[in-house]
Design brief:
mainly alpha, two-stranded antiparallel sheet, 7 helices, 2 strands, elongated
Length: 118
């Protein structure tokens, strides 16, 4: 129990901490970060390709939030089952987000949720 609370806390703080980073690092003020803009932020730079769910060469806050949520994928199958979802809003909207009705959410389904939250 303590481990999962710690993990959830770390994931939440990751998203919150990087909300300010996106604004500060976004030198061209387009609301996204490219690989050059994340150079000073090792976690974003290291995981850039994984965070860039839509593969457009940039990352934005919804993609960072989606990546944060996907870190709950304890069985490492690339999807979230209901029991793996720690974000309250995501958990509440789970059934609506599960477009293919397979009982899991993949990164694009999670990203769609966070894009609507903007």
């Amino acid at each position: 129990m303590k481990k999962s609370l710690l993990a959830a806390s770390l994931m939440l703080s990751f998203g919150i901490a990087y909300a300010g980073v996106v604004k500060k690092a976004d030198k061209d003020n387009d609301g996204t970060l490219d690989k050059i803009e994340v150079k000073g932020h090792s976690m974003l730079a290291k995981h850039f390709d994984m965070i860039d769910v839509d593969k457009d060469g940039t990352i934005d806050q919804p993609e960072i939030d989606a990546h944060n949520a996907m870190m709950g994928d304890k069985d490492n199958d690339g999807t979230l089952e209901k029991k793996e979802v720690k974000h309250k809003g995501l958990a509440k909207a789970f059934d609506q987000l599960d477009g293919d009705k397979d009982g899991t959410l993949d990164a694009s389904e999670v990203l769609a949720f966070f894009q609507k939250q903007k």
